[in-house]
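Predict both folds.
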Amino acid sequence: MSEIANIEETTICACSTGNCSGAVAVVRMSGPDTIDILSKVFKPKRDVDLKTVPGYTLLYGDVLKRDGSPLDDVLVSIFKAPHSYTGEDSAEISCHGSNYIVRELLSMLTDNGAKYAAGGDFTKRAFLNGKMDLAQAEAVCDLISSETEAAHDVAMQQMRGGFSKELEAMRTNLLQIVSLLELELDFSDEEVQFADRKELQKLLDDSCSQINSLISSFKLGNAIKSGVPVAIVGATNTGKSTLLNALLREDRAIVSSIAGTTRDTIEDVINLDGILFRFIDTAGIRATLEAIEKMGIERTYYKIRQASIVLMMLDSTNPDGFAESIDNLSKRINSSEQTLFILLNKCDKSSILPASEKEEAAIHSEKTALNADDLVERVRAMAADAGLYPSAILPISARQKVGLDVLESMLVESQKSLRASSDMVLVSNMRHYTALKDAYNALLRANVALGEHVPTDLVAQDIRESLYSIGTIVGAVSTDEILGNIFKNFCIGK
């Protein structure tokens, strides 16, 4: 049975406020039998016929148990099709947030014909009933999970159709092109050209440029949504896991003096001044024959390539290892696209201070930085020789939390663009990004083919492939499998 046929026959219900008890809970119901089922369990305080009550009506009354006694006094919001979130008759029952009350209420609704909703069922119905396109539906999930103002603004902009409008304008242009080309095919025997080739070339160039701009925005959009990826890298025992724990303010990674303790990457997200950073603690880089550790090091190299920011840890008590670490990193970092900070860890150790100060019991960060100037310049020269130009070289002590406030400020400052971009149309969804790349590649083929006077039918086929890829984003092209993969990540009741 198709999705559309299924929703036309069933009424669903779910608690939209989670499974934990609280002051208030909201139970939602949507489908053709909503009003009939509601009338069997709800008795308004005033005498009204629920079937004739207009939409956008709020009623106060009692939910009655099977024996007629009251379960709870509730507020019921009634919405009539098509003027509801799902486009169907819908109701929201606001009751006290007792788990017992919610369970009993849901049980009574299902006893009277409703079915328990799966994750995303309400939003899926909104899409299938034409209340929103697929990109907007996915933005609902992003809005719920947004943890920063920027992530919220991007999700809101997409949910209100900003991204969809750009795609629709693009689809209109491409449909115009392919329609003219296919019209020529209908009159191929007469060798008539309905479309000026220079004009078509310009339309294709404009479409390619527009799609490429959206593709390029994914790096920023994904960073706003999922967090700026920050890889903490370096040789073994430089303090990478200690730094991660200090930044997260919890013992997230195992810290040990035994080299090679971290075998795999460990990730966690923190909010620094309204910006999400996804810190990735990686396996220490060193020559090893141990199979599992080698796998961890390979993953480290992969995470370095993925990161927007790389924090390179150097052990300031072991300057002899600097050159090898810097040279190793220089082969795996893209200096033009990635931000690099070099951290001279263990600055609380007296080995980097003049001998006259080695016996001091306390070392302040200002004093440490002053005495570490020579070491900083030495590292800067080594980095330059290897073709690396770090944004900063900072002495820190991850264990003593010296210099971490400065590091956090530098991280936030490096991502200022995340604050100023919330009004832009950004791609933040991997599915959309992949579909846009497919559409772009198809248009590039069409563009080249048009310039090389390839037969019209082949040019039109490439443009149709691009239209198909764009259509999968907004749901103009969809299957039950695609919908299942998208909505399975939604919470119950949304």
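Second protein follows, with its predicted structure tokens after the sequence.
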Amino acid sequence: MAKFKAIVIEKAEKGQTIGLTEFDEANLMDGDVTVRIGWSTINYKDGLAVTGKAPVVRCFPMIPGIDFAGQVEVSTHPDWKSGDKVILNGWGLGETHLGAYAEKARVKGQWLVRLPPGLSEREAMAIGTAGYTAMLAVMALERHGLKPGDGPVLVTGAAGGVGSVAIALLARLGFQVTASTGRREEADYLKGLGASEIVDRSELSAPPKPLARERWAGGIDSVGSTTLANLLSMTKYGGAVAACGLAGGMDLPASVAPFILRGVSLLGIDSVQCSPKLRVEAWRRLESDLDRGKLEEMTRQIGLSEVIGAAGMILEGRVRGRIVVMIR
């Protein structure tokens, strides 16, 4: 069996070790499709896994990386043949199943989504799990019935990956978008993506009131904790908030008041176990609804050897938008 480049995490006496090395194809996990990976990306969860700051990795040794785009090399799955271009997001990749920071992966065919014809592999990973999650959040708000005429929508963690794509999507769909960030120097960047107003994250970091002044018709939150609690308390009657992240913490110091006195809905967004049908729809929408020029503006490219350093930066909040990783 051939060897290929891969970033591998090993269990250590205290924590973990990580390095770029040669990996033997014979040691890939079971699956009915082998993919030659062309591109990957760095999401917040990847940062946690690579740095060991949270127990994302569940078994060792592990190749991290929760999503990839590439071409099928070998398949015994009826839906896929050699040469097919595919995307994979989630399903335990990089956590319990050897992941994307490698030149090859062997996975289950039912985990794969066909690359939309209007997207390149690089563009798909510039979007990545962060952008795909943002699309799932937008779709959840639409299913709730939220419309541009209902009022402004708040996006928290706005300069990050989820936030950047969410702003671009919402703005193109006609929503008035307010961006919350702790990086005021990114105001021009966020307005370029489509935000009409910038608020400092300090406005959402005070101890939340059960109910505060109604400000937003809805929101997309990737922060959690006090930020999410404040957003809920400030959401207008009948509004909804899509929650998809925990950069600020897993707790939720909120009250039931927004739910029972204003009819606010909290919509949970899961990108890992999301149904294949919903995944296909999300990627179809990303192909049609995401401005490709704005995607390029929010994206920078690195190589596989630079992933370990970039992982720490994303946890420190020093990454603007998206990082795409060229594997080959």
